[in-house]
Design goal:
Blueprint (H helix, E strand, L loop, with lengths): L3 H15 L4 H8 L3 H8 L6 H11 L3 H8 L1 H17 L2 H21 L1
């Protein structure tokens, strides 16, 4: 069975070839090293920021992938956070909401 990274690699290679781009051209368009494109296309892990640059250069929307791949995990986190916020005193609720916001902003900017 093909892994998530292998599927993404095939998708990237196909999109690149449909544009008539070489791997070097895609790397230049995305602002990443050529070995990053090679790693992605071969199903190897790369930094999220570099993956995002390559996907953006090709017009591939990663949010769709996340919604399709992880809906149960996302729903579980949403429910757990909601329940935690409901049982906390107001002061703690604000602190937790602020902490969650900081985490989302921090990790969202790395994606």
């Amino acid at each position: 069975m093909e892994s998530h990274m292998q599927k993404k690699g095939h998708e990237v290679r196909l999109a690149r070839k449909q544009r008539g781009w070489s791997a070097a051209t895609l790397a230049q368009e995305a602002g990443v090293a050529p070995n990053t494109v090679s790693a992605i296309e071969n199903g190897k892990p790369v930094r999220d920021g570099n993956m995002r640059k390559v996907l953006d250069a090709l017009g591939i929307v990663p949010e769709q992938e996340a919604r399709e791949e992880y809906p149960e995990a996302i729903e579980l986190v949403r429910v757990m956070v909601g329940e935690a916020l409901l049982v906390l005193p107001e002061k703690d609720r604000r602190e937790l909401a602020d902490a969650i916001t900081r985490v989302v902003i921090r990790y969202g900017s790395e994606a």
